Amino acid sequence: MMTRALATLLLCLLVSASGTAHGQGIAPEVEKILRERLIVLQEAAKLQREAHRTGSAALTTTVEMDNAVLEAELELATTKGERVRVREEMLKIAESLETTVSQLAKANEVTSVDVLRARANRLRAAADLAIERNSLQ
Fold it and tell me: Which backbone phi and psi does 18 adopt, to 5 degrees?
């Protein structure tokens, strides 16, 4: 069960990692909707983290919510500095997930494919951050 959930999470993270639009040029009515969405996602992520802390929610859903918040922030980012900050947070999450998956693999709770997916996700996040940083120059 944990393996399937992690595999799904990693696939979702890989698919969404680099497909986010820039916040520049968003129509005001769209920006208002996206900001409301961000607030909703932030509240959901807060509740999800609390549920995970108390043991009533899985790590995978918690990471998914945190990633959804960051994707929403990235959509609204209007400066390169904001985009870099969000990408740095995404990389931190990917690194943390890779560490967790590696530990689970040592306990034979996930497969080597899950470890490779987590590594690929971290590498995608690192590449996206490097692209953002290079666009600053």
Answer: -120, 10
Supply the DSSP symbol for 20. Answer: P
Q: 36 lies in a domain?
A: yes
Query: What DSSP assignment string belongs to 27-60?
Result: -HHHHHHHHHHHHHHHHHHHHHHHHHHTTSS-HH
Q: Which two tokens stand for residue 54?
A: 């108390």
Domain holding 126, by residue range, is: 78-137
pTM to 2 decimal places? 0.79
28 shares its domain with 49: yes
Query: What is the domain count for the chain?
Result: 2
pLDDT in tens, the chain (137 residues): 455 555 555 555 544 544 444 556 789 999 999 999 999 999 999 999 999 999 999 888 899 999 999 999 999 999 999 999 999 999 999 999 999 999 999 999 999 999 999 999 999 999 999 999 998 76
Residue 67, Cβ density class (10 Å: 0-12 exposed, 13-18 middle, ≥19 buried): buried
- Inside any domain, residue 85: yes
